[in-house]
Specification:
Length: 271
């Protein structure tokens, strides 16, 4: 029996109460169902991975694209889904709130709002505006008592501003504005991670990990509650595809196809 959105949201909040869990990032319905099959307890969408799956660059999808994608994934799996909701697909707080209300209706258990403007010349929203955007998201989530978990996300490290004080100032402000979970993609050293965890305690922190980074146990020892991998699984999938396709295009040979996952096992998993 499929769980209701309320069931999934309650389970998602429970996951954040103690310990540390991996929340991997599928890029379509098939990859979402595969990750559930492998036993993960929750999933998170990836803006980049989804964009590439529909032949768009990251940060170039529409709110309609994303809401349709989220609804499809939430309907396909029986575990909570957290939405990478980028910048809320708007700058103004009231429009962010309206879009968040749309996202809530897709069945997501959580969503994140980031402070990246989309302009690399001025990458972060002004401090006061960034806080108001989190407040607007919180208000939209609370309007129908949905219980969706809100993650406040500071993009400074990803956008070339490796200023830990700035990150901590923003994350603590986002927590005060109503974020349930905090996230600063790009922090990586034990010192940076510990400082962020301590600053927003007792609220949980999400850590982004790629090919390099702490293990689940090491992250848990630093106080991290949740580990996501962003577009890394999508890049891994594209890596296999592009290696095989390039070999065919450039050499006329097919050896890389031998590294594919067995079709029989895929059929069994999706049957």
């Amino acid at each position: 029996m499929m769980l209701t959105p309320a069931d999934k949201r309650a389970a998602f909040r429970k996951l954040h109460e103690s310990g540390c869990f991996i929340i991997p990032n599928p890029f379509d319905v098939g990859s979402a169902k595969a990750l559930q099959h492998l036993g993960f307890k929750a999933l998170a969408s990836t803006s980049a991975g989804f964009a590439w799956s529909i032949a768009k660059a990251d940060n170039r999808v529409t709110v309609d694209d994303v809401c349709d994608h989220l609804a499809a994934i939430c309907a396909a799996v029986d575990i909570p889904v957290n939405a990478d909701f980028e910048d809320g697909f708007a700058h103004e707080p009231d429009k962010v709130g309206a879009n968040v209300a749309r996202a809530v209706k897709t069945g997501v258990a959580g969503l994140s709002i980031e402070d990246f403007t989309g302009d690399n010349a001025r990458p972060l929203f002004d401090y006061a505006l960034a806080i108001e955007r989190i407040r607007a998201a919180r208000k939209a989530i609370d309007a129908d008592k949905s219980g969706v978990l809100l993650t406040g996300r500071c993009e400074a490290f990803l956008r070339g501003q490796k200023d830990l004080k700035l990150v901590i100032d923003r994350l603590t402000a986002y927590a005060e504005a109503g974020a349930d979970c905090l996230y600063a993609p790009g922090i990586s050293t034990p010192e940076e991670i510990s400082a962020v965890v301590k600053a927003v305690h007792p609220k949980p922190v999400n850590l982004l990990v790629g090919a390099a980074g702490p293990s689940l146990k090491a992250a848990a020892d630093l106080g991290i509650r949740r580990i996501s991998v962003g577009g890394a699984l999508a890049r891994a999938a594209w890596g296999g595809f592009m290696r095989a396709a390039r070999e065919m295009a450039e050499q006329g040979t097919f050896t890389e196809l031998g590294n594919g996952f067995p079709g029989g096992e895929l059929n069994k998993m999706f049957s």
